[in-house]
Amino acid sequence: MLNAEQIKSKAKELGAVLCGIGDLKLFEGTDPQRNPLSILPNGKCIIGCAIPVPKGFYKTMESKSQFYTYTSLGVKYIDETFAEIFLLRLGNMIEDEGYDACLQRNVPGMRIKGDKTTNPEVKSTYELQFASPVAEGKPVPDVIIDFGQAARICGLGTTGLHGRIITPDYGTFLRFVFIITDAPLECDKPFEGEMCDGCGECIKACPGRAISENGTDSWQCSVYYRGAHKSNPFMKDDFLKDNPEREAIINGEKRFDSESAKALYPSLRFLPETHFGYVPCLCGKQCEVVCTKHIKQMKSRGEE
Ligand code: SF4
Ligand code: SF4
Question: Which of 88, 146, 265, 296 is the most exposed, having the fewest neighbouring CB atoms within 10 Å of its CB?
């Protein structure tokens, strides 16, 4: 009979560096649009796996020698190709044993009804504002689980101020996938405490001032992720030359909302988009770089 050890060993063989299994009962009280039990009502557990993003990509962005590979390989390839093959193979193993495996990959371009945020990694996001349930008591489709909540319940890590999942051994340099299943696997304990200690390093590091004590403003981030700050090496002297707010924008001082952010996107095409509409990351993901360094330092001091 299929057990947790076999799942974890297969996940590692397929390329995951972390694998945890969470009890679906712990999602009790979760918004039905986010609840894995809305997807598989007789589900028992959720399997969470983390795929590593090579840290060299962050180093080349930090040294400003190469940006495109982070987006094309570290984001697009992992989420659009690697994650899918990984999920299908692990899912097949579960279904071959007679259980259901509901595979959950990142859904970059969609937001559940009522979620007004965006995903800075893609050219546009669509809120499912016109969706409605098929019957009373049913959730509004599409149900999209909260990866941060799922990672905590699987015992993998917790979400930081910058919105990324932080883990003790890999910091934030990871992409996540999940499988909801009715297989009766032994579950891990949820992650206790918080990986984010509120040190504020990410607030200081973001060139677009997108992060505050209250979290990350995704629209502000989307503009500076695309390279609106003067630290972007692809920016020419004539960038926004007729825009009266040029200085405020390139210094990261202007505040953007959804409308003003979208209006600026056409001026921020410094490098081509990749397949599936991923936009190149030109901020160097500085929020994650400083956070991962901070976590490493805390660990070396035994403060984790
Ligand atoms: S850099 Fe500090 S404040 Fe920011 S997410 Fe990481 S631990 Fe939290
Ligand atoms: S450093 Fe980049 S990814 Fe992080 S919050 Fe700022 S703009 Fe967004």
Answer: 88
* 208 Cβ inside 6 Å of ligand 2: yes
* Ligand 2 probe mutation, 75, 161, 216, most atoms within 8 A of CB: 216
Domains of the chain, residue spans:
4-181, 201-300
- Cβ–ligand 1 distance for 254 under 6 Å, the answer no
What is the pTM for the complete model shown? Answer: 0.96
> Residue 69 half-sphere exposure, CB side, CA atoms within 13 Å?
13
The reply to whether ligand 1 has any atom less than 6 angstroms from the CB of 200 is yes
Q: What does the DSSP 8-state code read for residue 276?
A: G
> Are the CB atoms for 203 and 161 separated by under 8 Å?
yes
Instruction: Give per-residue pLDDT as tens, 39-58.
Output: 999 999 999 999 999 999 99
Task: Write the DSSP string, 237-255.
Answer: TTTTTT-TTHHHHHTT-S-
Residue pair 139/133 in contact by the 8 Å Cβ criterion: yes
Cβ atoms of 256 and 264 within 8 Å: the answer is yes
Residue 142 CA to ligand 1 centre (angstroms): 31
pLDDT (tens digit, 9 = 90+) per residue, 182-237? 999 999 999 999 999 999 999 999 999 999 999 999 999 999 999 999 999 999 99
- Tell whether ligand 2 has an atom less than 6 A from the beta carbon of residue 282: no
